[in-house]
Please model this.
Amino acid sequence: MKYRDERVLVFGATGQQGGSVANALRSHGWQVTALVRDPTTDKAKALADQGIELVRGDLADMQSIEAAMADVYGVFSVQPSSGQGAAYGVTDEDEIRYGKAIADIAVANGVRHLVYSSANAAGATKTGIGHFDTKSEIEEYIRGLNIFSTIIRPSAFMEILTLPGMGLEKGEFAFFMKPDQPMQFIAVEDIGKIVAGTFADPAKFGAQTIEIAGDTVTGAELAAKFSRTAERPITYHRFPDSLLDQNAFLGGLARLVDLGRLAGNANIALLRSQFPGLLTMDEWLAGAGKPALLSAIQAGSGEVALR
Model:
């Protein structure tokens, strides 16, 4: 069977993960349909320009999802979550409902391969952070369904490192790990590479939960890499204890890094052999990461925006 002659429905295609997946699938010859709320937006039009079919729909409209999922081979499922901020207007309950509904509709429509994007902190034990525990619940629900599925658990995105509020405009950088503490990261574009490879080889990657990352770096190593890229000194320190104590969300994330749940446990060497071309932090900083880093350095100060 030529899997690349088949069609995959991609959720969140105008966002980071879904967009990466849609682009990677299309570039590898798959037929791709993207569920979008507004086909007239610039992001939606950019997808159409790549030969991706746009279908109008909304996660709150189950009929639109059912229509979009008719006669597709595979589905890539990712949902907005409360962790992405108030602008999305999504609660933890919404995320769980959407994730389960997509899986149920996939079963009802005879979808042959469902790939669900979770998070590396997900697992059998609750984290106390809502938008991680929601993904754990959706994972478990999918495993109990009669559908061929793969669950990926991405590490922290490299792109998160250039968000406002990290101190880069002051020549410093603050994050969750201690200076000598390693943490794994992945470039968003590599999520697409991995998902495309997973759909292309279901015999190898089906019925698996795969933690994914592209590189492991410490805080001190990040500072050195940022300094080389920016051609100016950048120092590193962990977020102050006072901030972590005052902000339950940030404090919870730091705790998960210290426990190893959020620091990551992906087998990067194995991933590189299975999915060639995954970016290291240096490679990302030499490409798409460089303008993002320089822009963050030149920006004014802002509040921490990690969700």
